[in-house]
Design brief:
By secondary structure, the protein is an alpha/beta fold. A 6-stranded mixed sheet has the order 6-7-8-3-9-10, sandwiched between helices. A 4-stranded antiparallel sheet has the order 2-1-4-5, covered by helices on one side. It is globular. The chain starts with a helix and ends with a strand.
Length: about 230
């Protein structure tokens, strides 16, 4: 009990990297987020479990700036995400399937995306691909990748810029047992490096193993589990 109290006091003394307060979102008359409150901290993995259509992806898109709230507030590093401002910065994101260039190799896809904001660094990109279990020298076209390989490439894209925030919606989709174990190691290593990670999964085991804080979402309502 003392340890839990100390942890709670330490958390309360820190500023959350992501703060969601009383968030509400409608599509037409349908309410898809209802009074959602969430804090995510650096060096922690926050997990959300819920079925398809529960509101997880909508919440993630609101945090990233793809959608705007109808009520409530989202802050990232103390700055409110307002209507009309740019998308979330300094974040690696997996939401739905990335639009890769199917006729190009995985390495070529990463090169094109990385060089939008960074000087070309082949050594770094090769290391990222190997970290997620892909061969950077392979000429295989992405359109011929298995679902698991595409998911590994999506994770590589999310982490290649060494962003401080990771928003990961179902990052284990399509991975086999070994792939899941390998990606868990990647996410744990990123956590140890102080990244703020928000992760959603259908798989309760992923959430239980990886996450410091766990929430469940159902019909747009988010409630803490632990």
């Amino acid at each position: 009990m003392v340890e839990n109290t100390d942890q709670k006091m330490e958390q309360e003394s820190r500023q959350p990297v992501i703060r969601v307060q009383k968030a509400e979102k409608y599509f037409g008359k349908q309410k898809v987020l209802s009074d959602v409150n969430l804090d995510c901290y650096a060096g922690e993995i926050t997990g959300i479990v819920g079925h398809n259509g529960s509101g997880k992806t909508v919440l993630f898109k609101c945090i990233c700036g793809y959608f705007y709230l109808d009520a409530g507030m989202i802050q990232v590093n103390g700055k409110e995400m307002n209507k009309g401002q740019d998308m979330l910065q300094n974040a690696g994101v997996i939401i739905e399937e990335p639009a890769f260039m199917g006729n190009s190799s995985g390495m070529r896809n990463l090169e094109c995306l990385y060089c939008i904001r960074h000087a070309y660094d082949r050594e770094h990109l090769e290391a990222v691909m190997m970290k997620v279990g892909l061969d950077p020298k392979s000429k295989k076209r992405v359109k011929n990748y298995s679902m698991g390989m595409r998911q590994r490439l999506a994770i590589a894209q999310a982490i290649m810029e060494d962003q401080e925030i990771l928003i990961l919606d179902e990052p284990m989709n399509g991975l086999d047992k070994n792939g899941v174990a390998e990606m868990r190691e990647v996410f744990q290593e990123l956590k140890q490096r102080g990244k703020t990670i928000l992760l959603a999964s259908h798989n309760k085991e992923d959430i239980d193993v990886l996450c410091d804080h766990v929430y469940e979402m159902e019909m747009g309502v988010l409630r803490p589990v632990r």
